[in-house]
Amino acid sequence: MQYSRIVKALTFSLTLIAASNSFAGAVDLLNQDLQKGIKSLPRETRMYSYYGGGSAQGILSNGKSFWDLNNHSTKLSNAGLGVYMAVDPYVSSPDNGADTGMPGGYGSSMVEVTFNPGTRYLDLVKAIKLSPATLAAIRAETGMTPTDEKQLFEAEETGFWRDTLRYMVEDKQVHKLVRNIVNEVFRRNSITLTEYRWYSAVSGFCSVTSGKEQKMFSALVYIGKDNSSIKKAISFSTSGSQLRSGDSQADVRVNKLRDVLAELKPMEKSYISGNQNAALAKMKSKVFEKYPNSAEVNDIRSATLDCVK
Q: What are the domain boundaries of the chain?
């Protein structure tokens, strides 16, 4: 009798160990695949988020929602839970609401966040291809069906990308298990931001780093558990047609940039769909017309993700 209990206990222990090893295998393999997309901000980088109520600090605290396994919200979620940000102060502004699909934008208040150099982010502008071994390990650990796999890893592009983060929050057992695996990989790598595809008129200021399409992408999601990656955050409220923060230099810089980007927007549409070289030349000409002081342009370039001269 005693012997039987010992055998059962050992069998149970071995089952737990096997399950643990399977989970570790899925984590390790996914971690290996995602390394090609993990990057660090090379310098202080400014990003912007519009919001409709509360304080800037309160809004930024929503980065923790990514890690809350009881949060299954997919509302306004293009790329999972977190705080949606842009590399410029125009993309999600009330003035650009029609293009964002959000008439009136995402709110009339805005926060400009300066992230520290070295902040880690995952580039999901293009899907990251997963190895057959990784997908097999995820299937074994989670019970992922072909339908689940299509939703999580093949929705529009094949691989790990923004739709993975979007759909893994659904309140389903398979999705919860996939989410656990993803969260562990993000935790291991101290991922604070994820970057995904959304066009920005800031192309008029910047070329892009090698390896990307010759267009600027602007959308990110902040998923910081705390604000240790943030150097400073300036909160702006709307006053008439202007943004006001109490910092006069920041007010001048941000309002001028937003106004110039509004002028560049029609040219950007031609840049995306038409003659790129001609459209880009026209955009850059407008930039230098509005910014005769090259120091201002260099400041914008140096503080914008993926922006090079």
A: 1-40+130-189, 42-119+192-309
Q: What is the pLDDT of residues 251-291, one digit of tens each?
A: 999 999 999 988 888 777 666 666 667 777 888 899 999 99
- Which pTM does this prediction carry? 0.84
Q: Report the amino acid identity of residue 172.
A: K
CA distance 160 to 194: 12
| Contact between 94 and 230 (Cβ < 8 Å) | no
Query: Higher-confidence residue: 237 or 98?
Result: 237
Nearest to 78 by CA among 219, 206, 199: 219
Q: How many CB atoms lie within 10 A of CB 257?
A: 23
Centre a 10 Å sphere on the Cβ of residue 235 and count the other Cβ atoms it contains: 18
Other C-beta atoms lying within 10 Å of the C-beta of residue 249: 8
pLDDT tens for residues 133-147? Answer: 999 999 999 999 999
Kindly provide the b/e burial profile for residues 76-107, where b requires at least 16 CB atoms within 10 angstroms of the residue's own CB: ebbbbbbbbbbbbbbbbbbebeeebeeeebbb
